Fold this sequence. Notes:
Bound molecules: copper (II) ion
Shape: elongated
Amino acid sequence: xxxxxxxxxxxLLTLLSYSACSQNTDAIPDEVIEATIIIDNNGxxxxxxxxxxxxxxxxxxxxxxxxxxxxxxGRYTFINNSGANSHPLDFRNxxxxxxxxxxxxxxxxxxxPAVNILFDEDIITFTLTEQLAxxxxxxxxxxxxxxxxxITVIEN
Length: 156
Ligand SMILES: [Cu+2]
């Protein structure tokens, strides 16, 4: 084996071990992001967020129709104390198409196993996948369009 071949072999091995290392780093799971967001209403005019616990979700508390920030990859539980039947909470894209939510309308991500929507009376739980996040624009009450605020997505 001549010197040039040895040098090539060395470079190859270096590259291989580097990529093996970065794969190992990627394999370590990120911390789980989870939050519970409790919302309520003021008549048919506005939603408000009354509390947030956990990580990755942010909003002004007790202010009308606040912007809500959610982190991609997080799993979020919205407890809708205004009542899922009275003020069904939907999440929409820019074209006002329902992505997911509590109304009876069809949502584009209803059957996405990664989003994994769970319903329990006034509670909706879902995972903000990259794909869902790329379309997510706002939340709205399916009955009262004025009950509406923007959603900002945060990169994880
Ligand atoms: Cu409403």
